[in-house]
Design goal:
about 280 residues, mainly alpha, Arc Repressor Mutant, subunit A, three-stranded antiparallel sheet, two-stranded antiparallel ribbon, 5 strands, about 55% helix, about 5% strand
Amino acid sequence: MRFYAGDWLSDPKVRRLTWEQKGVYIDMLALMWKSGGDASLPDDPGAIASMLGIQKRKFIKIFHVFFEKNFEIFFLSDGRVYQKRISEEWEAANEKSKKATESIRSRWDKSEPYERNTNVIRTNNERNTSHIHIQNHIKDKELKHMCVSDSYSSDFETFWKAYPNNKNKKGAYKTYQAALKGDLRINKATPEQLLRSAKRYAEEVKGKDPQYILHASTFLGPQERWFEYDKPITNSNGETLRDDVDKNDFRIGGGPDIDYKAYERARRGYDPYTPKCN
């Protein structure tokens, strides 16, 4: 259905309508065109109101305005509602479609039988070729999917066990590799650095609500949050502390109590320390 903006803006009848009446009017035209048949609507205000999604009582007031002497926008015939311009456009469109169909049928009838057969064979061949391409494409995708490996490097697995949030392992591995390569990052990490950072971060967030713990892909991402946890640990005196000292190695007599004095001396490097093998 064409919309003639010039006619719509210059028609004095349309100009006298309220904004609400104009909205109902244009919706009714669209319904007429979409309904097919003879491009009309039933002379049933309730049914039309339902199609428009408007209250029946409200629509009836507007509907009657369209038939008043000063407007006469629609007209009734055989229990149907019509609009002159829409009816003319509908008939013209149907006539054009009919002529186009007859023209195609005429050209088809004039063609020789062998030409028809050739076209049919060509169409079938094209359809078969297209089907083969689709099958090959599906196979390629399946093979590509089969080739995707879910295996991870041993150093990443060690990191993953130490990290406190084990969500989105594939995404984490991707950013882990990028961190090692230094892609789009200031610092190029080593597996040892990332593992150390993961352990320190895990210690910091122990007991926290999981929703506040960073995903590994964020921790290892371009913002390099991991780097904050790879800096040397210092105490209030500015002394650098070792973070590889396990307090469990300082249990007194194998009991639950820890010799914190010896533990702190080892962390500060005052006493030699070698991790015990479990």
